[in-house]
TrEMBL record:
GO terms for biological process: transcription initiation at RNA polymerase III promoter. Residues 481-490 have a biased composition (Acidic residues). GO terms for molecular function: histone acetyltransferase activity. One of its GO terms (cellular component) is transcription factor TFIIIC complex. This is Transcription factor IIIC 90kDa subunit N-terminal domain-containing protein.
């Protein structure tokens, strides 16, 4: 199979609309998540759609993202969510009292939310960095209106024979892993009960960039204006009686930092005040890229307050060993600050690059107010500024936006494109969409990229907005209670009664609302979440669609000369996605140019370690000598066995290996490698856990 036979990237139809903007999230492994009013749509990609001609023929009619999960988007903050999290450290939660099961009386300072009137609706989703969860896959975190953060992801039992035989990825092992926020219990060794019940309402959150497998930092903001930084780990429980993959995997959550994120401006909470304006954003936190220097790493956490933007530096000292608590601290004050007019749903986004000039390291980004775009630049290793004294929004002229920045069409989707490290643009390259796209407004899509072709979804939405039909045909052809595709609508309009000979009123039959914009791991594709509305009827159809844009090569024979450069490290899954849809380069061990046995059997420490072991193991059926050729080990009686892509050892029994979700090769489990090392080499120290976390053939993640 080549990239031109990949599954088609077709529009995804959803039966619900999002309750808030920026409702689209794309993970480092090209997994897609959409937050809507009724459910969270989670889509898993098929990276190669099969590896043989027969599979290609069977999957020719199957589109990309056909595998999906729709958990409910209304979540009650039940103590059961963290039952297993507490049980892992030996804490048993008390049973709820009679009449309290399923009830929620609210938390926080809000007049409504503090009384428990929040619905518990998911209003935002974000993927964690690479390598955090089970099988080194990212996990998905959702923010609810009750003030909870709920984490979804895989929780596979590697000892189960049912899961060990799986060759393709499914949602069978997906679970609600744990949660934070309002009324949820979390383990606390300082409490006499071994746990504490969180009594704060979370209003925003952000994952840090990738640190190391199984380790990440999470920042969240509560409704009291406090910013909290927690370490999140997924690691093996220390148990000397077990080894390798037989040890139990557990989650560890620890709070490290709590700082004031309210800013210097006085709160104006009286709605009768003529200068009152709504404030607050669920997108008010964002981590910069990590700056690694002199044995420690720093990142700047940007936060939005009332008409204020702050940049607080977070320092991670030393090596963070898996299973140990990290040494994390916050600087005493912000690196720099900005005062500017901000309204509801303001957003901040960093450029994924660090620019170095001499000893100075700077990072840049974009702020949406959300009606206009403001760029910023922060020195990651600069001198701290003095804390801003409390003042009113009139003193810093941030009460009202400039007349040039006035708009009534808010920005609901923003992506900052990956830059060429050798060509620094004056401001970060970005693309954005605004809420309303009609025939009369032309600013619903904006970008400062160098001139080029428009995304496919921009042309499609623009064509439908510009379409004109007679008002009679528009009234006849669109039924607000029936969702039909464009072909059905066109046919209905053609069947409308003929228009009179005299000139008739022509109208634009459709308009769009845009709810989010996301980019693929390597910035080769974009996706937009949009809902289509009728201009002539009251609209009651709660539907939306995900439209895609991808790179298209003009000539299949010219693909070698049309490779698009990618300027940042990606996971194997991300690189395969960009190879299929973003004109990215070939992926060793996966794509046709690197799929030979010589390309797969690369030298590695484990292959060198087990080189003699691999050629000395006998056949388990007839005890004759095995000979290894390409990816198969066979004896003289034609008993054949697959070869472990990590160690080169023949796999002689079922249930002791795992299959890669990308190249479909098998690798022995860590526990099996340790047994072989102890039996034939006399030491298990040479086999580290990291050797068994990804496929040795292509670096992809395992199915289970």
């Amino acid at each position: 199979m080549d990239r031109f036979r990949a599954r088609p990237l077709q529009t995804l139809s959803l039966t619900s609309r999002p309750p808030s903007p920026h409702a689209l999230a794309w993970s480092c492994d090209a997994e897609l998540a959409v937050a809507t009013q009724e459910c969270i749509y989670i889509f898993l990609p098929d990276y190669l759609a099969g590896h043989d001609a027969d599979a290609d023929e069977r999957d020719a009619s199957q589109y990309q993202f056909a595998l999906s999960l729709q958990p409910s988007a209304v979540i009650n903050p039940s103590t059961r969510i963290n039952g297993q999290l507490c049980a892992q450290v030996g804490v048993k939660l008390p049973a709820p009292r009679t009449g309290e099961e399923g009830s929620f009386r609210g938390v926080g300072n809000g007049t409504v939310t503090g009384s428990g009137a929040a619905l518990g609706q998911v209003i935002r989703v974000e993927w964690s960095p690479n390598g955090l969860g089970c099988n080194s896959r990212p996990v998905l975190m959702a923010l609810t209106t009750t003030g909870n953060l709920i984490t979804f992801g895989e929780q596979a039992d590697s000892q189960s024979s049912a899961t060990s035989s799986m060759r393709t990825r499914t949602f069978k092992n997906w679970r609600v892993l744990w949660g934070l926020g309002a009324k949820l219990p979390i383990p606390d060794s300082k409490s006499k009960d071994g746990f504490r019940t969180m009594n704060e309402r979370i209003v925003s959150f952000s994952w840090s960039r990738e640190i190391a497998p199984g380790r990440a930092l999470l920042a969240y903001l509560n409704d009291m204006g406090q910013i909290v930084v927690m370490s999140v780990q997924y690691h093996r429980r220390r148990d000397s009686s077990k080894r390798g993959s037989e040890q139990e995997w557990i989650w560890t959550l620890t709070e490290h930092i709590r700082i004031d994120g309210r800013g210097p401006h006085k709160e104006a909470t009286d709605p009768q005040d003529p200068d009152f304006s709504p404030q607050g954003s669920i997108f008010s936190l964002k981590w910069s890229p990590w700056l690694v220097d002199n044995g420690y790493r720093t990142a700047t956490l940007a936060y939005l307050a009332k008409n204020h933007v702050g940049f607080r530096r977070i320092v991670l000292y030393g090596d963070w060993e898996r299973g140990e608590l990290p040494d994390v601290e916050s600087e005493r004050s912000d690196t720099t600050t900005m005062c500017l007019p901000l309204s509801s749903d303001a957003l901040i986004e960093w450029e994924d690059a660090i620019w170095t000039e001499g000893d100075s390291h700077t990072a840049r980004g974009i702020i949406t107010t959300p009606f206009t775009v403001k760029s910023f630049q922060v020195m990651l290793n600069g001198v701290l500024s003095e804390p801003s004294p409390p003042h009113s929004i009139w003193e810093c002229a941030s009460a009202y936006a400039d007349s040039d920045d006035m708009s009534t069409n808010p920005i609901t989707g923003l992506i900052v494109h990956d830059p060429d490290p050798n060509n620094k643009p004056p401001i970060p390259y970005y693309s954005l969409v605004r809420l309303s796209a009609t025939s009369t407004n032309l600013d619903w899509y904006q970008t400062n990229l160098p001139e080029g072709s428009l995304p496919q979804w921009v042309e499609d939405i623009g064509d439908q907005n510009a379409r004109l039909v007679s008002r009679t045909a528009a009234l006849y052809g669109v039924d607000s209670d029936f969702e039909s595709d464009s072909e059905d609508e066109d046919k209905a309009m053609q069947d409308a009664p003929p228009a009179p000979a005299e000139p008739v009123l022509q109208v634009h039959p459709y308009r769009f609302r845009l709810w989010g914009l996301a980019k693929s791991p390597g910035d080769g594709c974009t996706a937009v979440l949009a809902s289509k509305h009728d201009t002539q009827h009251p609209d009651r159809r709660g539907v939306s669609n995900v439209h895609f844009d991808w790179q298209v090569s003009a000539d299949a024979d010219d693909k070698a000369n049309r490779v698009r450069p990618i300027f940042k490290p990606l996971t194997t899954e991300g690189r395969v996605w960009e190879w299929m849809y973003g004109l990215g380069g070939d992926v060793p061990g996966v794509t046709p140019g690197y799929k030979t046995s010589s390309g797969r059997q690369q030298s590695s420490p484990l292959k060198e370690l087990f080189k003699r072991v691999a050629t000395s193991l006998p056949c388990v059926f007839c005890d004759s000598q095995l000979s290894i050729k390409d990816d198969v080990a066979a004896c003289e009686n034609r008993h054949a066995f697959a070869i472990c892509a990590t160690s080169g050892i023949p796999i002689l029994a079922p249930g002791i290996s795992r299959v890669c979700g990308v190249c479909k090769m098998r690798c022995l489990k860590v526990s099996e490698l340790e047994k072989l090392a102890e039996e034939h080499i006399g030491s298990v120290d040479a086999v580290g856990d990291s050797q068994g976390e990804v496929c040795g053939g292509c670096g992809g993640k395992f199915v289970v």
